[in-house]
Amino acid sequence: MCLILFAWQTHPRYPLVVAANRDEFHSRPTAAADFWRESPQLLAGRDLQAGGTWLGITRRGRFAAITNYREPQDNEPLLEKSRGHLIRDYLLHTETSTAYAKKLQTQGNDYRGFNVLLGNLDKLVYVSNRCEAAFELKAGSHGLSNHLLDTDWPKVHLGRNRLDALLEEDKVDPEALFELLADRNVVSGNEPPGFELRLAPELITRMTFIVSPEYGTRSSTVLLVDRDGGVTFMERQFDAAGISSGTRSHEFQIK
What we know:
This protein is an alpha+beta fold.
């Protein structure tokens, strides 16, 4: 997952609004978002190569998502553990978000760089193995790409502004969120002070939706959770040419 735009406890109708793009190699096998046969309480896509996931929610309201922290290839440790297991394991168990975040901090050296969101209707926690402290998020809108939370990359900055504009409406339109995620323009703007472009190609920092033959945006996800616990989860998948192969929609009530 290379871009997660989300609003936490800012909208009068929806305590959680998420719009996210997953960028990945087209050769990596993936299952579309659905309730897992062996774990029917879990709604998520699935990485068929390693068995984990990048974003999901359960019928009890546990939510989690991850982005990779991009680093120079020569600095990335050769670790085999899949970061997608971190999301899968949180969603399938009952450990609190705070306790699980602390565990990730102690186990962080076992994985390449990650950013993780963990929560439910009451609390949302951010944790990364590339910063010292995990913390509970206060109400607000945020952007998370392949650097730390709210790093002011051009596409993160623009995405947050566009999300804030959509949140001014009484009812958030999922199609408007998909339109936000589908922007294929190169975003203008400056990189954060001290940021080294070699940590992430310009394509990654400046394009919301990426189209290329080998690596690009594989899916867009919209998640809305309302004050009564109603969940709308929509996923739109794309091929290597950036053409949509369809949209899956799931609605349920948190128990």
